[in-house]
Structure to design on (1179 residues):
């Protein structure tokens, strides 16, 4: 029988998971739209969903990682905003780790983002990623990149603008149900269902009595370890084999030894070196005798001289396994100087402590946990007497839960399986319940060996992590639990030592703990009264004023009534390190009522306190005897404090402070000595009028949040050299901004009363985000903003007095987002800094033609002054999104940039004309495009023709790529505008919402490029504003051979803000026909049928989001015709040829270039005239 003897890390599944599905996504718009619908659909089918708003309030955000571990499935929803978030990427790393460890299934969903952009970090998705990457270290970045490489490779779903979200959600829910109902447990490479691997009627496999048992995935590990043998290397190699207790190190090396011992003349497998080591002594002669056992020597080892023994040993190559080594000295005693080992020998050392082999091995192999299916089968093998699956279906789910609990640890699986063998269902259920409190005794004994070898400080840190900080940022946890200063160089780190002993795991810069170790540690920690988290035990300790307490965590929502306490409650708890009073129901004032009452005041002599979290602290200040000298993380949200404490106290270790929504706080003098402070959250402190000048000592402060400090009037003069993020949002009394750090990267001044920006802001050369939204008094944007070379996002939305934007966009080389909606601008921002009438600007103009700006998004909406856009807007080569909503005086739109994906001109009442063509045709990075002209009621018919003409040509170009790259049905282009009729060029049209037609033979040949779909919608007069409107179009094509293909796509979609549509509108969408062509061509070939085969088609339109009635609909098959050409330009101006109309495309593109060509010619003539006159003048 294969016997494993030692696992890796993740989390316990002691009962059916609280959250079966974890949603990983980014963005409020996504949360309120697609994710909201998906969540509801999942819940309707009885599926528990975790979404971050459900996170237990008052707890550290690291709980999200526990939620991932508790889940069966993770839905990773990739969107254009996804890579703006550290948290999303950290979650994704955790998801990947769980998938790799075989505890989680991940299903990627690509929402309005190109899958290729996600996989290769390109386009807008990649751009925001590389922007974020600049702010993190190398190790974290590598983990992000690996997660973004691995997760998108899994089978998933893609939603484009044309996708039917309702149908897509149904498909996603169906896949989730399929995974959950089949109890999928993922393998390392792909998901494998194990709920019923052997359907009814099939015999459950059973190991033959005389045959060796299955290897349960060890073949892969053995192959990986064999690669370490590297026989091409002629030198001696020493290999360390590491892993947590019970993970299978001994089993693996035993199999390798058995397989390869015949290739060496001298072989030794020295079992359990730890047991041979007594009182730091070991008899080496046992090892030497084993090495010489086949040499037929007739004398004792002790009788050999050192020289003769060395010569004898050097005569043959050796294969040596030192099993279960626990101390470096053991290796030194056994191997000595290794000068007796012949070149070409191989030595393997197994250990549960990585530090033991540091500097003593040439390579290391870590044994990872078993995958999901291997765990299940290994457990079943012992639980059901050699069967690989429960013979009775009632044990199937219970078996999965036990396999989940062991999290791939073979020793735990074997012990639990043997213990449950032959027991009834009731016993299984009772055993599972007991495991919630503590691990199996045998497993506990194995883990206890490693724990008992720890020193006292290491034991305390292990138990603190298990009881209070099981999952969290490594630096944060170290600062709280370690005994030494974490900032000192080469200091002892208990956390790193525990990780090297596999008692905790450090992954992605985070501390995690395996479930077996977690329950083991929690049980040890609960013994006595040093660490308390059960509310009954906490209340008892507080009432009885128990001493010698190390940590208290109390969920006040579990208290049924207020608890009055004596002032001397904490008098004996001088060694208390961790104190947290929180509410898991709500961390805000609305429900989070402090249940603790101190009618006679409070004595608080906590000299050792490191972590203090007290929701709604009831006193005006902390007591005089409070000593914060060791305080590291200090949280008093929604408190009644007016000041922290009297006078200045020693706060040298204080790094994190959260006093948010303490509305009476008016004095921060207590923080004057907090020179190590890194984050300070003062959000909602409405009585705070000023910051102390002494804050300039806070040279480590990185983050300062004063959102909603409505009484704050001015910032002191200082330079906080480390400050990167400053939030002054809605500090409505600030009229003048003072630069307090030259190294700011993110600055939020939105909602302040500033009238102008100070000139010294030009120093902010690292500034990436500048938010000035709703600065109602701001009258002008200074030109020095063009000198902020790192600026990527500039928000001026709602600056109602802003009339000019004098900074040429060309000078803002990194600017990606410019929001100018709700301003009083009289004209569109200047794009070029040069004057095209001057000869010396010719090189600048030439450079500008190839794309002068990195701008991705430009918002000019709600402007009543702009009547025309600048003609050179087409030179914003990288522009993806142009927002012109409610520009009520806009009359025309010129030639647009070639990469534009979204144009939203909703409510442009005077808009009449658009350029023809609307933009130069180019193969875009992303296929989908959407041009919205809702409520543009003065749009001329010529303009509507131009919109549909451009959409058709653009779709044909993209359809060719879909065909070549194997794309499936999706909307290539969506357009909508006012109208009551289906355009006349639609071949097939009818009244109502359904179209039935008979297509001619050979209609679906290789000339068919796209299918155009059209619906005319009438909207009710009483409709409310809606934030999305979608039409589902279901198409079915069936020929006389019986071949049928059915697909659907969506016209419409979501908008950034809600709107009301006040007249009939035409919605047109173009979808690729490549999947239809390939399908029907394949069926004809399969049936060897060459004759004419007519086809019947059924097209049905239905409003699925919003209110409206479809009154007309149409379909048109768009074919490529011979001798038709389209010019496609790349970023360098090179062109390639693709089929499209010469008569229309070339002339329209030539018209687009005409003005620029004439400008070039004229400038050239002027240049040579000036040059000639200057020569004559010189002569």
């Amino acid at each position: 029988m294969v016997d494993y003897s030692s696992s890796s890390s993740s989390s316990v599944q002691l009962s059916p998971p609280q959250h079966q599905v974890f949603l990983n996504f980014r963005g409020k718009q996504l949360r309120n739209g697609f994710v909201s619908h998906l969540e509801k659909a999942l819940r309707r089918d009885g599926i528990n969903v975790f979404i971050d708003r459900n996170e237990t309030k008052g707890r550290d955000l690291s709980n999200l990682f526990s939620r991932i571990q508790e889940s069966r499935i993770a839905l990773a929803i990739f969107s254009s905003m996804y890579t703006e978030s550290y948290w999303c990427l950290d979650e994704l790393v955790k998801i990947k780790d769980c998938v790799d460890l075989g505890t989680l299934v991940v299903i990627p969903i690509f929402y309005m983002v190109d899958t290729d952009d996600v996989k290769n970090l390109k386009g807008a998705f990649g751009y925001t990623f590389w922007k974020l990457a600049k702010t993190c270290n190398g190790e974290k970045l590598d983990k992000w990149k690996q997660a973004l490489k691995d997760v998108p490779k899994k089978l998933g779903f893609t939603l484009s603008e044309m996708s039917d979200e309702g149908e897509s959600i149904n498909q996603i829910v169906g896949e989730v149900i399929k995974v959950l109902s089949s109890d999928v447990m993922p393998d390392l490479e792909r998901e494998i269902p194990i709920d019923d691997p052997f359907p009814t009627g099939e015999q459950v496999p059973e190991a033959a009595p005389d045959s060796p048992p299955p290897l349960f995935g060890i073949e892969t590990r053995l192959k990986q370890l064999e690669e370490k043998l590297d026989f091409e290397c002629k030198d001696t190699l020493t290999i360390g084999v590491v892993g947590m207790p019970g993970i299978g190190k001994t089993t693996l090396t035993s199999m390798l030894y058995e397989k390869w011992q015949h290739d060496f003349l001298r072989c030794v497998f020295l079992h359990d070196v730890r047991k041979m080591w007594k009182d730091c002594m070991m008899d080496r002669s046992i090892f030497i005798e084993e090495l010489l056992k086949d040499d037929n020597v007739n004398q004792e080892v002790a009788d050999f001289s050192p020289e003769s023994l060395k010569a004898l040993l050097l005569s043959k190559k050796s294969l040596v396994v030192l099993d279960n080594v626990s101390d470096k000295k053991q290796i030194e005693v056994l191997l000595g100087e290794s000068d007796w080992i012949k070149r070409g020998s191989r030595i393997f050392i197994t250990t549960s402590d990585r530090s033991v082999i540091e500097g003593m091995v040439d390579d290391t192999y870590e044994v990872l946990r078993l995958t999901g299916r291997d765990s299940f089968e290994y457990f079943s093998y012992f639980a059901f007497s050699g069967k690989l699956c429960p013979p009775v279906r009632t044990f199937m789910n219970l078996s999965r839960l036990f396999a989940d609990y062991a999290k791939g640890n073979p020793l735990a699986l074997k012990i639990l399986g043997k213990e449950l063998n032959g027991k009834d269902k009731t016993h299984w259920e009772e055993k599972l319940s007991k495991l919630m409190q503590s691990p199996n005794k045998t497993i506990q004994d194995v883990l206890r060996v490693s724990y008992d070898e720890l020193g006292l400080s290491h034991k305390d840190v292990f138990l603190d992590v298990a009881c209070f900080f099981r999952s969290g940022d490594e630096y944060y946890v170290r600062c709280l639990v370690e005994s030494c200063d974490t900032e000192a160089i080469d200091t002892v780190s208990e956390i790193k030592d525990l990780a090297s002993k596999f008692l905790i795991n450090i992954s992605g810069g985070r501390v995690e703990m395996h479930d077996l170790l977690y329950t083991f540690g929690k049980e040890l920690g609960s013994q006595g009264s040093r660490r308390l988290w059960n509310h009954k035990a906490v209340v008892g300790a507080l009432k009885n004023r128990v001493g010698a307490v190390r940590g208290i965590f109390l969920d006040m929502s579990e208290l049924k009534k207020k608890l009055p306490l004596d002032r001397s409650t904490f008098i004996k708890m001088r060694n208390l390190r961790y104190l947290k009073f929180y509410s898991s129901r709500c961390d805000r004032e609305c429900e989070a009522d402090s249940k603790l009452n101190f009618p006679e005041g409070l004595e608080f002599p906590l000299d050792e306190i490191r972590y203090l979290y007290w929701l709604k602290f009831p006193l005006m200040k902390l007591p005089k005897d409070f000593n914060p000298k060791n305080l590291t993380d200090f949280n008093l949200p929604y408190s009644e404090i007016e000041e922290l404490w009297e006078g200045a106290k020693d706060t040298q270790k204080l790094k994190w402070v959260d006093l948010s929504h303490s509305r009476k706080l008016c004095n921060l003098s207590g923080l004057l000595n907090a020179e190590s402070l890194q984050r300070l959250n003062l959000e909602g402190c409405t009585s705070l009028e000023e910051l102390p000048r002494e804050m300039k000592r806070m040279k480590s402060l990185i983050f300062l949040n004063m959102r909603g400090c409505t009484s704050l009037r001015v910032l002191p003069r200082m330079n906080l050299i480390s400050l990167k993020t400053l939030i002054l949002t809605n500090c409505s009394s600030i009229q003048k901004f003072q630069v307090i750090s030259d190294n700011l990267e993110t600055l939020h001044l939105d909602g302040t009363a500033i009238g102008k920006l100070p000139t010294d802001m030009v120093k902010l050369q690292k500034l990436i985000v500048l938010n000035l939204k709703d600065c109602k008094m701001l009258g002008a944007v200074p030109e020095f903003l063009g000198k902020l070379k790192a600026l990527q996002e500039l928000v001026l939305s709602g600056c109602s007095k802003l009339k000019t934007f004098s900074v040429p966009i060309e000078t803002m080389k990194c600017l990606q987002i410019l929001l100018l909606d709700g301003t009083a601008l009289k004209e569109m921002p200047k794009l070029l800094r040069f004057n095209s009438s001057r000869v010396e600007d010719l090189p600048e103009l030439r450079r500008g033609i190839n794309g002068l700006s990195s701008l991705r998004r430009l918002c000019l909406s709600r402007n009543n002054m702009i009547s025309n856009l600048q003609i050179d807007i087409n030179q914003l080569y990288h522009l993806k999104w142009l927002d012109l909503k409610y520009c009520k005086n806009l009359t025309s739109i010129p030639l647009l940039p070639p990469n534009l994906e979204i144009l939203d001109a909703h409510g442009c009442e005077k808009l009449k004309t658009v350029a023809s063509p609307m933009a130069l045709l180019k193969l875009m990075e992303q296929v989908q495009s959407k041009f919205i002209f809702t409520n543009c009621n003065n749009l001329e018919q010529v303009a509507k023709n131009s919109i549909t003409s451009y959409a058709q040509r653009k779709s044909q170009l993209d359809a060719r790529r879909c065909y070549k790259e194997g794309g499936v049905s999706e909307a290539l282009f969506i357009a909508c505008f006012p109208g009551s009729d289906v355009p006349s060029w639609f071949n097939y049209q009818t009244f109502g919402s359904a179209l039935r037609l008979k297509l001619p033979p050979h209609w679906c040949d290789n000339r068919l490029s796209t299918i155009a779909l059209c619906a005319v919608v009438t909207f009710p007069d009483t409709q409310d504003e809606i934030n999305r409107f979608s039409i589902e179009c279901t198409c079915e094509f069936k020929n006389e051979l019986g071949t049928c293909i059915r697909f659907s796509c969506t016209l419409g979609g979501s908008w950034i803000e809600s709107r009301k549509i006040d007249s009939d509108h035409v919605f047109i969408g173009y979808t690729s026909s490549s999947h239809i062509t390939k399908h029907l061509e394949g069926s004809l070939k399969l049936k060897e049928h060459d004759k004419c085969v007519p086809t019947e088609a059924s097209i049905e339109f239905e409003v699925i989001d919003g209110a409206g009635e479809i009154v007309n609909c149409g379909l048109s098959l768009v074919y490529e015709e011979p001798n038709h050409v389209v010019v496609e330009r790349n970023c360098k101006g090179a062109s390639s040829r693709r089929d499209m109309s010469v008569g229309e495309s070339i002339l329209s593109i030539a018209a687009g270039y005409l003005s620029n060509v004439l400008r070039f010619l004229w400038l050239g003539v002027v240049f040579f005239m000036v040059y000639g006159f200057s020569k004559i003048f010189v002569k």
User: Anything to note?
Assistant: Residues 1142-1178 form the longest helix (37 residues).
